[in-house]
Design the sequence.
């Protein structure tokens, strides 16, 4: 579940404790030394729990959600209905349905009920998000979650028998509210640790991979919808706890308490601090809480600075009662335009601790063994036809490959080479034909299942997880292989990095690499899946002749480490002839020749179609 227990468990826990101490310490100093109201600090601690809950989903999946406060509203009402005494309910909702007027649980049992009830709703919404094809940046997911927010608000307003409606609401008896911050402290500490552990866990890493590149993650065997559902459920559980604490601390709940205003506040906190970082999220909560309080003070009547009244002309148009709302709007607008990644982007305190304390290590000295390929798992593609609109991209195309060989696919631009690779890996649906791997029909399988079955690809245009380090890119594939390819011997991540010439780059982010190193990383990431076949789409694109020759050795070495066969597309004839055992030539969506490199070079039809020479009689 965690690739490195020291890095992914110990340091996040230690870092979480330090973050908790810093955040709570700042709140206590603000309250005691800077004149901050005790209630303001208490609600800031609760807001931190809620915003961290939102960060678990938004930060790791990249899907912007407006609906988490709607989940909070469901939890808040479920908590209130479970924890408020029947005597208090009789004053407002004596006719409550389902016998709820007579229910009273202990506050902490009521929190559990609220979390459970909200998770049921979250699962249903998660299924809807999955069916909408939710992914990072998808508008449909934002609309669905926004709809949830408005639906919960309207139900709360218009079902007074259950919620008390707009005017009465639900209230605890006098003195029956939260009387200590200890439960809030516990909830905040646990939430910080959970948020960091989730981000470092297998599920969190796969969710981040899908956030960075949905298509590439599926080609590496990741099912983004499963990871998004897991993130959503954990996120909603945390938000539910925070919302329940908010209701318990306030002592009452009205429909407007958990609606658009709190949604705006929490999202601004998340954006300002950095939605991809737990540390940044807490910083955002602190900055926005302090900023709103300062704006409230500046906007109140009679406030003076150096004897100058801010509510007098010519400053009265700025320093007025709604300055707090203006501050929120300006903060969101400013950060979305000038620093959309927030103050800290994805910087984490525990990662900084780890980097400072990590000892420089030498690459593994023992080279990884070369595996003998097993030809009992052939790849057979037959009769593939693909039509885009009225254009026939592939016509009755078929290829065969075995794990002991390298098979090349060549052809002029527009011949259908990449389309064929897309069909094999499940990214394009064919109108007819079949893709069979070792007797298993993968024709209609989704792309992530095809990758888990042993067909793993690279892309013509680089598709790396750019925010992740080189090691983390490779670990994504290794994590998937550990569960879906466990019957295959998987190379050690460190050994694979060393074999690929990436050891010295292992802690650099993928976006910082040069082009050639990026190509080696993409190949190493695919190899970490321990595939039956590596499917390479123009791996030497953009490379010089000398770099292409080096790539020949790199491809053979990577395939040998896992005993994989290779199917490669490329325009570089020197590369194809130097690496392939057999070659298929495509032109206008059809296979026009098939044979050894020497036979393909001598074929007059290939010369005419691919090399532009006149066909010889």
Sequence:
């Amino acid at each position: 579940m965690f690739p490195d227990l020291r890095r992914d468990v110990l340091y996040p826990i230690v870092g979480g404790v330090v973050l908790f101490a810093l955040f709570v310490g700042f709140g206590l100093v603000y309250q005691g030394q800077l004149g901050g109201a005790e209630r303001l600090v208490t609600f800031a601690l609760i807001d931190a729990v809620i915003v961290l809950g939102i960060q678990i989903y938004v930060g790791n999946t990249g899907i912007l959600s407006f609906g988490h406060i709607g989940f909070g509203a469901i939890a808040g009402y479920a908590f209130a209905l479970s924890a408020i005494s029947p005597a208090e309910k009789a004053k407002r909702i004596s006719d409550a349905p389902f016998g709820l007027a007579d229910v009273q649980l202990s506050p902490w049992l009521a929190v559990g009920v609220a979390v459970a009830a909200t998770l049921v709703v979250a699962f249903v919404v998660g299924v809807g998000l999955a069916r909408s094809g939710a992914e990072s940046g998808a508008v449909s997911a934002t609309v669905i979650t926004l709809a949830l927010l408005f639906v919960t608000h309207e139900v709360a307003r218009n079902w007074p028998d259950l919620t008390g409606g707009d005017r009465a609401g639900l209230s605890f008896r006098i003195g029956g509210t939260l009387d200590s911050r200890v439960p809030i402290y516990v909830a905040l500490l646990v939430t910080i640790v959970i948020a960091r552990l989730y981000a470092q866990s297998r599920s969190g890493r796969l969710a981040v991979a899908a956030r960075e590149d949905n298509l590439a993650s599926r080609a590496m065997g990741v099912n983004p919808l499963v990871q998004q559902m897991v993130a959503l459920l954990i996120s909603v559980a945390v938000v539910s706890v925070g919302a329940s604490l908010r209701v318990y601390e306030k002592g009452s709940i009205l429909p407007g308490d958990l609606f658009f205003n709190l949604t705006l506040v929490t999202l601004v906190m998340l954006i300002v601090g950095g939605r991809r970082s737990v540390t940044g999220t807490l910083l955002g909560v602190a900055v926005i809480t302090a900023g709103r309080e300062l704006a409230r003070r500046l906007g109140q009547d009679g406030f003076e600075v150096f004897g100058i009244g801010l509510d007098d002309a010519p400053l009265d148009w700025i320093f007025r009662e709604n300055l707090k709302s203006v501050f929120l709007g300006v903060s969101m607008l400013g950060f979305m335009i000038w620093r959309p990644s927030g103050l800290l982007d994805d910087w984490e305190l525990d990662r900084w601790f780890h980097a400072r304390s990590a000892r420089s290590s030498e690459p593994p000295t023992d080279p990884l063994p070369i595996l003998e390929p097993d030809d009992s798992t052939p790849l057979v593609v037959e009769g593939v036809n693909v039509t885009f609109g009225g254009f026939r991209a592939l016509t009755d195309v078929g290829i065969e490959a075995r794990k002991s060989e390298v098979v090349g696919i060549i052809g002029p631009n527009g011949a259908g080479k990449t389309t064929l690779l897309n069909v094999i890996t499940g990214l394009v649906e064919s109108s007819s034909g079949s893709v069979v791997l070792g007797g298993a029909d993968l024709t209609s399988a989704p792309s992530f299942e095809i990758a888990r079955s042993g067909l793993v690809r690279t892309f013509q245009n680089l598709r790396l997880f750019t925010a992740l380090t080189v090691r983390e890119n490779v670990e994504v594939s290794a994590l998937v292989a550990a569960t879906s390819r466990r019957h295959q011997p998987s190379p050690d991540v460190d050994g694979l990095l060393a074999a690929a010439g990436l050891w010295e780059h292992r802690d650099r982010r993928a976006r910082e690499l040069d082009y050639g190193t990026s190509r080696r990383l993409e190949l190493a990431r695919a190899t970490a899946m321990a595939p039956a076949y590596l499917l390479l789409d123009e791996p030497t694109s953009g490379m010089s002749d000398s770099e292409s020759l080096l790539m020949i050795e790199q491809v053979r070495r990577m395939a040998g480490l896992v005993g994989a066969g290779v199917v490669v597309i490329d325009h570089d004839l020197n590369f194809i002839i130097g690496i392939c055992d057999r070659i298929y030539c495509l032109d206008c969506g059809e296979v026009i020749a098939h044979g050894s490199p020497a036979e393909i070079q001598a074929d007059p039809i290939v010369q005419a179609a691919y090399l532009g020479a006149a066909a010889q009689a």
